[in-house]
Amino acid sequence: xxxxxxxxxxKFRAWxxxxxxxxxxxGGFFERYHSExxxxxxxxxxxFMDEQDADIIGWALGTIPVPDExxxxxxxxxxxxxxxxxxx
Length: 88
Prior knowledge:
Helices cover 59% and strands 0% of the residues. The chain is mostly helical and 88 residues long. Helix 2 (20-33) packs across helix 4.
């Protein structure tokens, strides 16, 4: 992790969502991809962080449809959930 205050703040927010499920999903997504994000993708993630945990998990699990405003390459990566590591 670099010394960029914005990225440190985003990392903290990603891992402290309020539910364990969203912490793993959003925090894991951040850990896997943040180092390759450009300014536009960082802005997308910042907006994404403002969404409700129930919606994010619903999108991830496919129980509710992803709104058009969130569709695109970043959401496609998120929906793979191949970055989630669950510890016992």
